[in-house]
């Protein structure tokens, strides 16, 4: 006897059976259609990249998660950590051939050596879209509109885009008396405001970030101002009118909100949120996140403008904006809420085989059904009893079974059995095709 190989998938990785694959493909196809509707082009990059494009660019914490090694040629390579960095490499390598603004989307696997736990995996799908080569915040507004359309098409009804501008936060921090050096640490803390509340953010700013109580209070007073979007922007204009970078941010935000007003975008889907910071240090302008409100799912996409990243690869300044949707997160929510029901089986009919002598009759009928785009399984074992074939169809949730016995062959008919109701009809093959094509 051959020695049995021990089978066990690697921790942090997953197998996808039919139902999971279908839900993922459904979600991905919606994103693709919406992206292409807005003029974004697909891009795919290799699984393996030279590690130098990632090392030193994403921070020490990210580098701990790299799948990095030497290949057989002694080159330092790694599985791609994200899809944005390879996109930067592609733009830099092809800068003379790309027509700017370049709108690209990319839906591919990335790999991170995470500690496996619920909701965290070592291989997952990133769904990114970006506009490269334009500093206009119209591109930011358009992305937000596009994301709202995609989530609506997937079936979400209660969600919101929280919108802010990193320049505004920089202006607020300047107004409060903090230094630019403290900017990122302050942003990390105030981004937690919805989760831990004002008092805990203030405590963290003072105790962990070493910000004075007066400065922390001043920052929180500004970022917690309330009011409708226009009212809130007016309040900020009055308070920050001597801070040029803050006024620049407010002007950009007004452009975005005027875009929404012009196209009559439903106001329930977006909100100006002055404390949203987004954790990544490379954002330079508008930032936003898509938040599912139903069931406290939280953020499913992080987005923003990053005008200083691609220049490091290309040797010249190239503006960029865009974002990333969490496919896995969306799929899990869809499955848990049963928003989309896909059968694991894709066949609409099973053609049974009465006996070996009638196998060719069954084969011809199965072929006719397939030629008419009716997904069909031909039972492959002519010697097995009919009741076993029917049990197979039942277990696989195949809705219709076609039976061809000697009597049906003589009369040039078949029996069509509805597996849900048990109803049986004698029909011609043409009548079966008509019924199953509905």
UniProtKB/TrEMBL annotation:
Matches recorded under Gene3D superfamilies: Anticodon-binding domain, Bira Bifunctional Protein, Domain 2
Pfam families for this protein: HGTP_anticodon, tRNA-synt_His
SUPFAM superfamilies, per the entry: Class II aaRS ABD-related, Class II aaRS and biotin synthetases
GO terms of biological process kind: histidyl-tRNA aminoacylation
EC code: 6.1.1.21
Keywords: Aminoacyl-tRNA synthetase, ATP-binding, Cytoplasm, Ligase, Nucleotide-binding, Protein biosynthesis
Cell location: Cytoplasm
Positions with a binding annotation for L-histidine: 112, 126, 130, 278, 282-283
GO molecular-function terms, A-Z: ATP binding; histidine-tRNA ligase activity
GO terms under cellular component: cytoplasm
Catalytic reaction list: tRNA(His) + L-histidine + ATP = L-histidyl-tRNA(His) + AMP + diphosphate + H(+)
Calcium found in the keyword field: no
Classification via CDD domains: HisRS-like_core (cd00773)
Residue ranges of every copy of the Aminoacyl-transfer RNA synthetases class-II family profile domain listed in the record: 12-380
Assembly and oligomerization: Homodimer.
Membership in a protein family: Belongs to the class-II aminoacyl-tRNA synthetase family.
Protein name per Swiss-Prot or TrEMBL: Histidine--tRNA ligase
Organism this protein belongs to: Candidatus Roizmanbacteria bacterium CG07_land_8_20_14_0_80_34_15
Gene: hisS
